[in-house]
Amino acid sequence: MYLQVAVNIHIYQPLEYATPDEITDDHNSADNNTLGLIFSDPPPSSGTPKQCPKNMTGCRVLVPVGSREVLGVVISEHRKNDISDNQNCQRTIKKVLRFIDDVPVFDHNILSLLLWAASYYHYPVGEVFFSALPPLLKNDYPATLPKIEGWEKSDAANPEKIPCRSSKGRDAWNCLRNKPLATADFKNMGIPVTVLKGLEKKGLIKRINLRDRQKPWYQEEITVNHEFIMNGEQNRAVSEICAKNGFNVFLINGVTGSGKTEVYLNVIEKVISKGLQAMVLVPEINLTPQTVKRFYRRFSVPIVCINSAMPAKERLNSFLLFSGGNAAILIGTRSAVFTPMRFPGIIIIDEEHDGSFRQEDGFRYHARDLATVRARMENIPIILGSATPSLESLYNVRIGKYHEINLLSRAGNAQPAKIIPINMCREGQFHGISDSMLIAIRAELAQDNQVLIMLNRRGYAPKIICHDCGYVFLCGNCDSGLCYHQDRHILLCHHCETRYPVPTECPVCKSRNLTVTGNGTEQLESCLKEHFPDESIVRIDRDSVNRKGVLERYLQEINDKKHHIIIGTQMLAKGHDFPEVTLVGIINVDSSLVSEDFRSREKLAQLIIQVSGRAGRGTKKGKVLLQTYWPNHPLLELLINKGYNAFAKEELSCREKLRLPPITSHAVIRGNSPSHKSLSDLMDEIYFFLLEICTVFPHTKIHPPMAASMERIGNRYHLNIVIESETRIELQKFLTTLINHKNEIRHLNNCRIVIDVDPSTTL
Ligand SMILES: [Zn+2]
Ligand SMILES: [Zn+2]
């Protein structure tokens, strides 16, 4: 047998191997003698070759690559190879050294998805496969669920021998009369293992693996706790989704507070009642215990979570439980999209517009887009939900690919928050907060309401300069100013995370007259403390929420009204509800209005609407104040007066006029190197090569190499070449041509080149 293997090295194509000599009866058939002729390699140097599993496709294997031994995943198996047909070929085919798995870790649909992703994102196939595996499976860790140690009555148990002296022994025996129990259950009841061992010695009970005895969830009766009654819109949404069979993409475009989650839960109920599984993907910050608890409260079925912050063993168990069909619901962040489903039922992407669904280094992919491809391969429905859908999804609705479902009314008659710009021209301000904002905060606090102030910059101040000569303190490794962090008393580079001591004098003119410019969340906090000394203030940003559980604690404290002023970065705009917040202040919206990134306006509009949705969720009406020097900016006016959908429609027609994504398709070739000279030489060479192949692609345009928005980060220079195609298909063909001719591009030391397809930014 010959195997195509995706090997965990940086090459684009899979490699071919032969199975080891020891093969099972299933494979040891007809062309056995030809195998002997081709297998001219010496026996593997290390490890005993495990017998080939019955189903090899999707299993991990150890294979030789040059002088190294590398892990790979079998993509396909076949009886003949190209080489044995070609008598002139001198190459001999190497053998697989060892099978790591007895059963595949990836099923057929995941293999297809990963192959599709490797070809669409033009990334080396083995690296795509290995970034999809849970971390422990990236080496030869076994893909098996740990035992659950338990006990049951032994068949030969003689009731005469029942312990009468020890009460704990009697308790243990009585507990086991009806059903087996886990050692952990006994510990919870205060019965130590020694008591159980004593009973085992007497032959009364025996040790078992409880996992083998568990009845699968789909054979049990599923109980559901309904907490809310859905309104007409929600009911119609659920019936519309459940009425269609097979692959369909539904976009739930629902205003904040319209109860999208309730729709998801009702659809999931219908799916699991058929014995099928549901996969729910959420943005990173939303996978909090509160989210998970809502699912647990609702359903009696086993639920697992997957995110990158959880312990590796727990993550592997979730992967195995879901892929084996032993869990009904998976709630996970972007990488969970690669978890196999034994009984595929539905995929749900909550807050589909969120940037965290995009993987931004290594194998760059968009989990929303891959989930859609996956749903098509599994032939199941997928729901994308958001109050501020991405322009990509709205465009797909327009061209008829997605079905849009609108939820227009807020649950419980809550009123939408009113958005009001504060004109900063000639407005008095204190550390970046306008007088009008301070007055508004004071008024809300007087009524015992909570206020939320958002500033998307952590630290105290983004720059520290010499007041006498204008010297700016810069990072030694990046083209970036250093941010002053008062709490930690350091200067920090936000690009390479290098820390510097806080200077006392200017290195140029020796002046001690140093000053900070601009403001961050720490400064906002100390300024508000000065103004409202009697109020409790909580700050939520990456610096204050840097340990597990801290965010949950703060969110709970906010709901318990321990704090009246909440300060934070855009972390706060994502999904968490603050029913007692009646005023939201956004400190700076102007930088996004004039950014050179064409997506920045879309992101700003999403942020404003999302953060507005945090206010006035309860019975109280909310208000949102935006500090801007352009209160009459057409985008702000449209968004404030007509809402997100009107804005999105206008922005989409703007993209159409300018021929920008999602109407057209983009890719960026990103190069970086410690040497500016070698990088720019290489990028020029790639550019001229691209121009050459471009002649047969009339609808593709190549831009000359351009410095990235921050050219030097961590002592590496970054240059980009932007490729624009009128169609996705042409862009794909173009990139394939590039990869096929890649060897014609000279490789230089220390230059790293990656292709970024459908980039989140071209900067
Ligand atoms: Zn100076
Ligand atoms: Zn730096």
Descriptive notes:
It is a single chain. With 763 residues, the chain is of the alpha/beta class. It folds into five domains: 2-138, GIY-YIG endonuclease, CATH 3.40.1440; 149-217; 224-412, Rossmann fold (3-Layer(aba) Sandwich), CATH 3.40.50; 414-460 and 519-657, 3-Layer(aba) Sandwich (Rossmann fold); 665-757, Ribosomal protein S10 (Alpha-Beta Plaits). Helices cover 30% and strands 21% of the residues. Strands 11-12-10-13-14-9-15 form a seven-stranded parallel beta sheet, with helices on both faces. Strands 16-28-27-19-26-25 form a six-stranded parallel beta sheet, sandwiched between helices. Helix 8 (232-243) runs parallel beside helix 9 (260-273) and helix 18 runs antiparallel to helix 20. The chain is globular. The structure holds zinc ion (2 copies). One zinc ion binds next to loops.
Could you give a quick summary of the protein structure above?
With 763 residues, the protein is an alpha/beta fold.
Notable features of this structure?
six-stranded parallel sheet, Rossmann fold, 30% helix, alpha/beta, globular, GIY-YIG endonuclease, 763 residues, seven-stranded parallel sheet, binds zinc ion, 22 helices
Strand proportion: 15-25%
CATH architecture of the largest domain: 3-Layer(aba) Sandwich
* Share of residues in helices: 25-40%
Structural class from helices and strands? alpha/beta
Kindly report the spatial arrangement of strands forming the biggest sheet: 11-12-10-13-14-9-15
CATH topology of the largest domain: Rossmann fold
Largest sheet: 7 strands, parallel
The overall pLDDT average reads 88
Tally of contiguous helical segments: 22
> Considering the protein shown, what is the CATH homologous superfamily of the largest domain?
P-loop containing nucleotide triphosphate hydrolases
Rg measurement, Å:
30 Å
Dominant shape? globular
CATH class descriptor of the largest domain: Alpha Beta
